[in-house]
Design a protein that fits this description.
The chain is an alpha/beta fold. 32% of the residues lie in helices and 28% in strands.
Length: 445
């Protein structure tokens, strides 16, 4: 079974049901199936043999049509991040042993190396982190679909759901939501703009019931929100911590919604989750383990045992994330190795300091990252977006929330946080800016 097979089943049952919706048009299950078949015919020159095909497209709609069509043609689809240049995509294909490519319509082929993927494998996914060359991983249909019943029950997904995502389907959070809605025979609104006012207009226009955005984009949404949006009954957020204050603001504009925060990974799927009410009681937590998933902490490092992992993973598996369980069994997330530093003998968590900054009224968003000083070793750097508060006022308020050594030594005030093609905060770009600040010795007073 694969996602093309799911589409064929639903197209036979509800051919006229809207499936994918954009600002310009709405496409039914039958229409998407026909477009997928048309795309499959363009791959006739390849001899797929169940080998990977790298797909580079700029819009989520095009990505999904090509993804489904590639499965129809016998390929294993891999969606490239849309900010990847064709030349870099070719290099990526060579380094990751991907024999076939469709790079913005240009068909590329290299000599296949090694054996084809085993038949149960139906897709490849890329890591969506903000640093380094993405990892290529492969998934069997059951590695996601086996959890869809629990996932859809938790997030209130039914055949009547109208979901909303923004950005690339190469981000596995978006792709997983799409796949779960396809599993339920539901509809999905695809937005390809970073203008949050447009998101709000589309949410109202299409009567969206399920909203999925990472926390940094939820904050963008709140900056533009004015009225209420009663159609939304569920809000999903992952990949970053969600401050209780942000959740409170979401409740103001989406009064009928339940808010869910989850902790997951491209390698493992959903790991833990919690609701709005639980978030208020455990503000630094990412929740309790999902059904069928076991989570343990050994020497401060989080280990996960799940049947919903990518190929080649041996469980218990660690993402090198650090954390601990509180007395009520909720997992507190401290950050990945590299986001926990030693400053003059004091162990500091970037995540902990980041949450303290975000709790201050007037801070619209913030990211805290390690920086390296030649003379003194590691320190913290903070990138902040401020509204109605000065940097000096913020630093003064932090004296009541943090130890003196926890207050970042380097600060950048920005108008907006840069995002990757996968929709996450571009930590690599921010680190470069902070490190340049260190090199120029412009330490804040």
């Amino acid at each position: 079974m694969d996602y093309l097979g799911l589409l064929e089943q639903w197209a036979a049952v509800q051919p006229e049901r809207p499936f994918l919706i954009t600002a310009k048009a709405s496409y039914t299950y039958q229409e998407i199936l026909e477009r997928a078949k048309d795309y499959a015919r363009t791959l006739a020159a390849f001899q797929p043999e169940h080998r990977p095909l790298l797909i580079l497209r700029k819009t989520a709609l095009e990505q999904l049509i090509c993804f489904l069509g590639a499965e129809k043609a016998g390929c294993v689809p891999v969606l490239a991040h849309p900010d990847l240049k064709p030349a870099a995509a070719r290099e990526f294909m060579v380094r990751r042993n991907i024999p076939y490519g469709d790079l913005l319509g240009e068909k590329v082929q290299f000599a296949p190396q090694g054996d084809p993927q085993p038949e149960p494998v139906c897709m490849g996914v890329l890591s969506s982190g903000s640093t380094g060359l993405p990892k290529l991983m492969f998934r069997r249909y059951a590695s996601w679909a086996g959890f869809f019943t629990e996932q859809n029950k938790k997030f209130q997904v039914t055949g009547n759901t109208v979901g909303f995502t923004e950005g690339s389907m190469s981000f596995t959070g978006n792709l997983s939501v799409w796949a779960s809605l396809l599993y339920a025979g539901a509809s999905l609104v695809l937005s390809d703009t970073l203008y949050s006012r447009t998101w709000l207009r589309e949410i109202g226009q299409f009567q969206v019931t399920l909203l999925y955005l990472v926390p940094v984009k939820l904050k963008l949404l709140l900056r533009a929100a004015q009225g209420q949006y009663p159609s939304v009954t569920a809000i999903m957020a992952g990949s970053q911590l969600l401050a209780p204050e942000t959740a409170d603001q979401l409740k103001t504009h989406f009064p009928h919604s339940q808010i869910y925060l989850y902790y997951g990974a491209s390698e493992l799927n959903y790991i833990t989750w919690l609701t709005y009410e639980e978030l208020q009681q455990h503000p630094l937590s990412v929740g309790r383990p999902c059904p069928g998933v076991k989570v343990s902490v050994l020497d401060g490092k989080i280990y996960v045992d799940t049947p919903y992992h990518v190929e080649g993973v041996t469980c218990p598996f660690t993402l090198e994330d650090r954390g601990y369980f509180d007395a009520d069994g909720y997992l507190t997330f401290l950050g990945r190795d590299g986001r926990v530093i030693n400053k003059g003998g004091l162990t500091l968590s970037c995540t902990h300091v980041e949450q303290a900054i975000l709790s201050v009224a007037g801070v619209a968003d913030a990211v805290v990252l390690p920086v390296e000083e030649a003379a003194r070793g590691e320190d913290l750097g903070a990138c902040v977006i401020l509204q109605g508060i000065t940097l000096g006022q913020l630093r003064k308020k932090l004296k009541d929330l943090l130890l003196p050594g926890e207050i970042p030594g380097y600060w950048l005030e920005l108008d907006a946080l840069p995002l990757t093609g996968a929709g996450k905060v571009d930590s690599r770009k921010l680190s470069q800016k902070l490190q340049a600040l260190v090199q120029n010795s412009r330490k804040s007073l």
